[in-house]
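quick one, two chains, predict together pls
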Amino acid sequence: MSGTYVHGYRPRENERLQDQAGTLVELLHADTAYPAGSRVLEAGCGVGAQTVTLAGRSPDARFMSVDLSAASLAEAERRIGRAGLTNVELLQADIFALPFEPGSFDHAFVCFVLEHLSRPVAALTILRELLRPGGTITVIEGDHGSAYFHPDSPDAHAAIQCQVRLQRQAGGNALIGRQLYPLLVEAGFDAVHVSPRMVYADSSRPELADGFTRKTFTAMIEGVREPALAAGLIEPERFDAGIRALYRTTKADGVFCYTFFKGVGEKSSA
Amino acid sequence: MSGTYVHGYRPRENERLQDQAGTLVELLHADTAYPAGSRVLEAGCGVGAQTVTLAGRSPDARFMSVDLSAASLAEAERRIGRAGLTNVELLQADIFALPFEPGSFDHAFVCFVLEHLSRPVAALTILRELLRPGGTITVIEGDHGSAYFHPDSPDAHAAIQCQVRLQRQAGGNALIGRQLYPLLVEAGFDAVHVSPRMVYADSSRPELADGFTRKTFTAMIEGVREPALAAGLIEPERFDAGIRALYRTTKADGVFCYTFFKGVGEKSSA
């Protein structure tokens, strides 16, 4: 059962990813813009949550956004249409079998994708192949081991650990954010630079406590309740106590911390 | 035994605090400067590691730096002299029995001190009393629960946990950083703003890997080996494996993350 869990493929998950893109857009994307005429490959665009931000911020670049899921692409198409964007082409394809010639793109962009792959370096290596010399890749990933909060709660950590274990059983890695630097280096990228993007939410920042702590992170952990129980990873009482403890961190005296990592690398022109 | 451990009071610890101030000075202090003529109370100055930075950056403010330890103050005096600073007065005093009139200071500064106190809110309340209406407090603390790294290692986390437990047994709290917001609010400060200061060290930042991961954080954890073993908190083999794993994170493919928290609050002038 748990092996079938892949986030981004359920209605509530889609809503969560949308909320995430809405509240974190500045933190994650403010420093990404592509020049006019650039050909940008977005690998694993899902429902287009990042695509509309990316393409909207670089209106004169041309985006090729690919995903494995036809259902996700259909939703992405609706979003791109609603946003009035005309610089995005969508294509259904496997990241490990992309139908492009080497050197076809100036830039590649990958967000919340590597965490689901059992061979992230292989995927990065393929993307590097598709870049022209001098092209860049931008990768954004979270890291569930970066979550800590006040009041602290062993139950909350146990609930988070369910998500980590389910993702590992599905071949992914929910702790991948911290590894972006060595992964990009191993895949052959040069001038690799990784910057952490920490979300810090206390009650002086109610929009983050609501938009991130409640509706993004805790909703995501809450979303693995069924597969976690089915896999026997935790007792229901403990899981529920953990979720309550996560919501508790959004009260007046609560604090929640989480860190995303953004890595940029170049394909050497030598 | 373990109850006697208080960091900042041993030769190797002092060296560590000096290294810490040297490599982290920009991250922690770049946005702290006091106007000419300001009267600033630094509570818990220790060996003066922060004092020389603070006073050097605000040469026309007057600092009153107090500490409980005469030995630490003697070292602080040497450092202040070597730095050629003439705007610092040192005084031996207990933070809970400071010999000043209410409203004596424009600003208060507290760095790596609350973590050692069993009554941090009481200390903050006292400092607030000593501020004039409209005065500010600046507090900086670490949080050992914010440490994560690649390669991950349960032994390393167990070794870190020894430090957390020893500090708790001594009445302190090594996880206090995340709590700065509620602590400052509870002590009556207004307009409280907390900002995390994350140290991210991969091998593209060798000065941080060396200055922070090795010489600051890992050296600090290594420093509790004896009290941790004496208190029966861990087996020596496991502790040593944990320390090796922490040093391992400074290799070419390693990554180390840690977050300090800086909080600023005002004493309402109403």
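Chain A has nine helices and eight strands.
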